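Notebook entry, cofactor series.
This is the third protein in the set we're modelling with a bound small molecule. For this one the ligand is NAP. I'm keeping the input format identical across the series so the outputs can be compared line by line later. Sequence and SMILES below, as received.
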Amino acid sequence: MEEKYLIVGGSKGIGLAVVNHFGQENCIVISRSGSEQANHVLCDVLTDDLPEIENLKGIVYCPGSINLKPFHRLSEEDFIADYKVNVLGAVRVLQYYFRVLKRNKGSVVLFGTVANSQGMSFHASIAAAKGGVEALARSLAAEWAPNIRVNTVSPSLTDTSLAEGLLNSDQKRENAAMRHPLKKIGSPEDIAKAVVFCLENEWLTGQTIGVDGGMSTIRV
Ligand SMILES: NC(=O)c1ccc[n+]([C@@H]2O[C@H](COP(=O)([O-])OP(=O)(O)OC[C@H]3O[C@@H](n4cnc5c(N)ncnc54)[C@H](OP(=O)(O)O)[C@@H]3O)[C@@H](O)[C@H]2O)c1
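Returned structure with ligand:
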């Protein structure tokens, strides 16, 4: 049976761009809604039973959150919700498919954020959770070498439904673009190219790749 990539959250945004790159026939998609795609499984990875899949060569875990508030307005529930969808969902998926990944010498891509390498106002909860994701990825890269490679892609603001509230006017889009050294916001395809690179490069593990218009590293 031909091996496929499991794209958790491949129904939209960055995950869909990854599916479009490989073709639906080469991917299995999990999401809570949207069942138009081939090989699509409706499933909430935080609560539902995960589907049995034997022919996996890689996993991309896309569910995430952008919950920006001043620190004093963030509740314990906010921190827990961000941690659950970003970290514990990935933990659940990776524990479930660990054996098949190991058997197939698979590859994993998780998502961090530019707000891990740059301190950013109002990002305390998401940065705490995504810091956990990056640390999880490096730990697993060590624990699972040489059988399974694990890398993180860390975007800055990217044009998906997740970021809709930050990009829902021309003025907001223009301001967001101008904050980046490369003067544009990311497209899902910009980020997907890095995901594909991580999945396919057989000498890459334990890395965090910033795809962020230069935001994390340069000032112009
Ligand atoms: N967009 C940005 O500006 C940005 C910036 C930095 C980091 N990131 C990170 O990049 C990753 C991808 O972001 P994105 O913008 O592509 O997100 P998105 O457009 O919201 O897509 C998320 C995908 O995950 C699915 N999903 C969410 N919760 C799920 C659950 N519990 N069970 C199963 N599927 C679930 C969604 O489908 P359903 O809702 O139908 O389940 C959707 O297919 C995230 O980890 C995000 O934190 C994004």
